[in-house]
Each structure stands twice: as C-alpha cells, then as structure tokens.
Amino acid sequence: MAEVQAVKSRDTIQLISHLLEIRHSQQMADIWNVGLNLALRISDLLAIKFSDIDEDKLTIHESKTGKKAQIILNPKSLSIIHRIQQENPHHIYLFQSYRNQQAINSPAKPLSRRAVSKAFASIGEEIKLSLGTHSMRKTRGYHLYQSTKDIGRVMRMLRHSSEGVTLRYIGITQDDIDSDFRELVL
C-alpha cells in the first residue's frame, strides 16, 4: 500500500470535499470535512456515536492506544454533526452505514473503513495525489505546523511520542526545514 500524503493546498482540500460529494456521497464529503477537523485515526472517526458528543466536546477512547481523548469541536465540525443528526435522528453512529438498514434485526454499524478508503483513493487518482484515510489526520497536522511552527503542539494534537515521527508523518522534509531557516531572517 502506497504511503498517503498530507494535502498541502487549501484549494485542493476544498476540491476533494467537492469531488467526494459529487462522485460518491454527501456522507463521504462529511467524513472528509469532519476528519480534517478532528485529526482522528479513521477507525476512531468511524466509531463516533452521537452519545460520545456532549455539546461541543467529543470524548472517545482511541482504539490504537486505549487512551481517552477529549476534543473540542470547532464550529465547522459542529455544524456538520448537527446537520447529520437532524437528517438521521434515529442513527447511533455519526457515520452510520445505510446498507445495514436493509437487515431489519441487525444492530447499527458505522460505515466501513474499506468503503471510505475506496472513495478517497478514487478521488486521489483523479487529482493525481496519493490520498487515503490517513490524509485527513496528516493534513490537519501539516497545516497546524505551518501556522504555528510548533512541532510539540502538533505532536500533542496527534498524540505522538516523538518529534521525528510527527515531522515524517505530516510530510515535513529536511528541505522544508532548510527553507524555513533561509526565509526567516531576524
């Protein structure tokens, strides 16, 4: 599996959202937009239940680390979440699978990681970018780093334990660091 990238252009971020909506579904565009704002791993993003949200705060236990994460929801995320909840008041999961509704006695399930991966990959092919489910998390980290230049802050947001891992994860290369030294003159 090819390594996916952070999306570095804000215009491309918007284009991906638009293409996901028109080529796949509003639900896929919502996953992209909420995922960008929460910086969660896809397994944790898809597992969000409406009961995990209290006003403007999301509380989850990360599946990979088992750690409890509390995330304040920004206005964009809240707007999308409220719209989804109004449109689907009977849903348990934020991104609930519609296929599961066909099985009357089956419990509700979230959308599958595979379905999201396929949709993202197809848009990535269309725009010539290695796009996957981790792209949302990497993109959030990249843009936070670009706006703050505070790798410690990015590490805490992504809940990483090493600066080197975080820099590699968000796609910051030695060339980027060298450029920062050249451009920032005091």
TrEMBL record:
The keyword Magnesium does not apply. GO terms for biological process: DNA integration; DNA recombination. InterPro entries: DNA_brk_join_enz, Integrase-like_cat_sf, Integrase_catalytic, Tyrosine_recombinase_XerCD. Keywords: DNA integration, DNA recombination. Gene3D superfamilies: Intergrase catalytic core. One of its GO terms (molecular function) is DNA binding. Residues 2-182 form the Tyr recombinase domain. Transmembrane segments: none annotated. This is Phage integrase family protein. It comes from Photobacterium gaetbulicola Gung47. The lineage of its organism: Bacteria, Pseudomonadati, Pseudomonadota, Gammaproteobacteria, Vibrionales.
